[in-house]
Amino acid sequence: MTDSLHTRYMAASATWRTHRKGCPPCQHQRRCPDGDLLYERLVKVQDAYLAHLRAR
Fold first, then answer.
1. Global pTM?
2. For the CA atoms of 28, 14, 1, 46, what is the dihedral angle to 10 degrees?
3. Mind listing the pLDDT tens digit of every residue in the chain (56 residues)?
């Protein structure tokens, strides 16, 4: 499970970073609708991954 969760976390992070690089609103902390969804997904997966690490 850890590898899968870590993989999802890294993929969500990479997807968000790639989007942010090409999206002016997201570069200036005013996320667009797509960026908002990507960022929320990243936050959820990051929270799950960190909770898993704390539980170990």
1. 0.85
2. -10
3. 456 999 999 999 999 999 999 999 999 989 999 999 999 999 999 999 999 999 98
